[in-house]
Automatic annotation (TrEMBL):
InterPro entries membership: PPR_P_subfamily, PPR_rpt, TPR-like_helical_dom_sf
Matches recorded under NCBIfam families: PPR
Source species: Solanum lycopersicum
Top-level taxon of origin: Eukaryota
Similarity remark: Belongs to the PPR family. P subfamily.
Renumbered ranges of PPR repeats: 37-71, 72-106, 107-141, 142-164
Organism classification: Eukaryota, Viridiplantae, Streptophyta, Embryophyta, Tracheophyta
Transmembrane portions of the chain: none
Protein name (database record): Pentacotripeptide-repeat region of PRORP domain-containing protein
Keywords: Repeat
Amino acid sequence: MSRICLRNCNGIFAENKVKDAVELFKKLVREKTCEPDEFMYAIVMNGLSKRGHTQKIVSLLRLMEQGKTQPDICIYNIVIDAHCKDGNLDAAINVLNEMKQKDIYPDIVTYTSIIDGLCKFGQWEKATTLFSEMVNIHMYLDLRVFNILIDGLCKEGKVEDARK
């Protein structure tokens, strides 16, 4: 049953009918037609993220928290990335802190999304602080996060900092 529910939501998103997809999803949850798992929430949230509907993503996160299925790192990463794309960096950092309070540890995707957002909006000091946090917890650092940080620092005229 859940695969049929998922296909319906995906099909509606493909037709760019965001409101209809969200309403169908909420109806399925409300009527207990199917019990959505993290994967189903992620599909709907990704569809919303691609269309810039961050507040709807946040409302689905809160709906999820009230149900049996609790958000995992993938769900939080979608929420954080959506906030960063909107330039709502304080909200992204609040979600990061919320995750940590729930003992859900950020991964490379989490940090990269926030560092990217911070660099795009000229907040390189916060970006370097987060990068230092990654180093301090011995997180695997990939080329993408280095490139984002170096690019952000260079755009701010901090070439010497970028070389370090």
